[in-house]
Design a protein that fits this description.
Elements (H helix, E strand, L loop, with lengths): L2 H9 L5 H14 L6 E4 L17 E5 L15 H4 L10 H8 L3 E6 L33 H8 L5 E6 L5 H7 L26 E6 L4
Parallel strand pairs: 2-3
Antiparallel strand pairs: 1-3, 4-5
Helix pairs in contact: 5-6
Length: about 210
């Protein structure tokens, strides 16, 4: 089901946001062997959705790039995981997503520092392609792609400098476009990743 279809089902009372959240967490735990999700927030830390066109739809943040509240991205690095504190705020990008009603629930697996077109961070399980677990879902947003393709979430945050959205989209049969420079906000902590060539967007099951 696409994110818009899921939001419509919630809005029309066919299901509820808490029921969708519980099902998403259950599915993520059931498919842990995919290595798509590196961290899930405790249920009590997940904020209630705000009203919006996608109200109640869960989303994973990538473990690299803009941060969501209580979800510090550590770039697939064991050293950073030991040093970085969880933020008490949303980045500008996640403020915009949350304003649409999306609900950040965890972090997806990425290549260490995003420097690979696979998603096999050291000291973590590699992300696998749900269509054939012998294959890679691509990278560096491979965990995001695997999670969407496996039906864990309908949409996931992703970043792209040199193919990190586009390659996983191709590997997993998803929609993913690299936004043009300056299209999406990257503050307040950063404003110019890699001299401006990085774009932040999403991987999704549908373009609608």
């Amino acid at each position: 089901m696409s994110a818009t279809s899921l939001a419509k089902a919630i809005a029309q009372g066919h299901t509820t946001a808490p029921a969708v959240l519980d099902a998403t967490i259950e599915r993520a735990n059931a498919q842990a062997e995919l290595g798509a999700v590196v961290r899930l927030l405790p249920r009590e830390k997940i904020l209630a959705p705000t009203p919006g066109p996608l109200s109640g739809v869960p989303i994973l943040a990538k473990d690299l790039g803009s941060c969501a509240r209580d979800l510090a991205p550590t770039a697939g690095s064991k050293a950073l995981r030991a040093r970085v504190s969880n933020p008490e705020y949303d980045s500008d990008f996640f403020k915009a997503l949350r304003a649409q009603g999306l609900v950040p629930i965890g972090l997806s697996t990425t290549a260490e520092f995003g420097f690979a077109l696979s998603s096999e961070p050291p000291n973590q399980p590699p992300a696998k392609n749900p269509f054939d677990t012998r294959l890679s879902p691509g990278g560096s947003s491979g965990g995001a792609a695997a999670a969407v393709a496996a039906g864990i979430v309908a949409v996931a945050h992703a970043t792209d400098a040199a193919g990190s959205i586009r390659v996983p989209a191709a590997c997993c049969g998803l929609w993913g476009l690299k936004p043009s420079r300056g299209t999406t906000p990257m503050g307040p902590d950063f404003g110019n990743y890699l001299m401006g060539i990085v774009g932040e967007g999403v991987l999704a099951r549908s373009c609608h």
